[in-house]
Design goal:
- Helix content is 84%, strand content 0%.
- With 176 residues, the protein is an all-alpha fold.
- The chain is elongated, with a radius of gyration of 18 Å.
- The termini are far apart.
- The relative contact order is 0.17.
Length: 176
């Protein structure tokens, strides 16, 4: 039986690689698209000559995107990655969850202030951007390649991530 089990894992990995090359949406593509969106917003904030009102609006977009992204990773992607027993992935997943805690603290400080009322507002957004860059680098260079090599069904996880993200975004728009 061990040979059959290895064969099944090899087949699943091959299927996962084929799906990744096929261009179909999967968990990693969705999460990378989120990373790009936040990176673009951070760049817009840092490099743009924005009024205080515009800075506050862009900072809010950054915070919403990060909040939703962190939530879907914590609720769906990280548990799926742990379940798939990604080789050497436990430490990366633990670090990612700790990093999310730090990001959430900065997001809360940004959301509860404004450029007019907080002399450290720009500094908070800048540090948030540095944390995000570090977190994205680790996920994209270390965690995601390990997930691709695992037997995680990235397409199924991606569908769950997309559905949950849509649900959270609709909820946020309902609050506005």
């Amino acid at each position: 039986m061990p040979t059959a089990s290895k064969h099944t894992t090899a087949q699943r990995r091959a299927a996962a690689r084929a799906r990744a090359k096929s261009g179909k949406d999967d968990a990693i593509k969705l999460l990378k698209a989120d990373h790009k969106e936040v990176s673009d917003l951070l760049e817009k904030y840092e490099n743009g000559r924005l009024s205080k009102d515009r800075k506050k609006a862009v900072a809010k977009q950054i915070c919403v995107a990060l909040t939703v992204h962190a939530q879907i990773e914590e609720e769906i992607f990280y548990p799926a990655a742990r379940e798939a027993s990604i080789r050497d992935g436990e430490d990366l997943l633990d670090e990612a969850e700790v990093e999310h805690g730090s990001l959430k603290q900065l997001v809360a400080a940004i959301e509860n202030n404004s450029p007019e009322s907080d002399e450290l507002f720009d500094a908070r957004v800048k540090v948030l951007g540095e944390y995000v860059k570090h977190h994205v680098k680790e996920e994209e260079n270390e965690l995601f390649p390990k997930a691709r090599k695992s037997d995680m069904d990235l397409e199924e996880v991606g569908a769950r991530l997309a559905a949950r993200k849509d649900e959270l975004m609709r909820g946020l728009k309902g609050d506005a």
